[in-house]
Design goal:
about 0% strand, globular, mainly alpha, Farnesyl Diphosphate Synthase
Amino acid sequence: MPFHVKYGYNASLLSADFVFAMILAIAARYDDRRIAEEVSNAALRMSEGEYSELTIDPQIYKLTWDEYLRIIGEKTAALFETSAKLGALIAGGEDKEVDAFAEYGRDLGMAYQLKDDLLDWRSQDKITVGLLKTHSESEVVGKMTALAQNYAEEAKRQLMVFPRSEAAILLEDLADFTIQRKF
């Protein structure tokens, strides 16, 4: 059961604000300004993506594929991208490694959200209902499945920058799990 359903909308917002404040406090401890800048940029992108989704009236508006991908890119993919990039920055990665981890996270986030929307298909989510205004259900499901697979494969390709290791294999497995999961 989603947090906001179980505890209410106000508790959900307050919890998110609290967690965000904790994240800012942690980011402020690092001498590397890029850490705080990345957290700030992610928060802005995620807010913009959430606002874009909230303003869609699926009964009226016909959402395009580009709009759908932009929205999930600003929300979930931005969070995954920032998380992966922060890990690389904190670990002291070289620029090409930081960039590869950021792209891995972004692609993984896109694959994750596409699969999540497929798993929640029958919930009549606003964003997926908007897609059904211009496409058949089978067309939407087929395209979302193919896109999720493509993003997962692209995430794995980003790892080619790194030497083959147990960690790289686990990250590849995570990309595969993202699109194979049943929950």
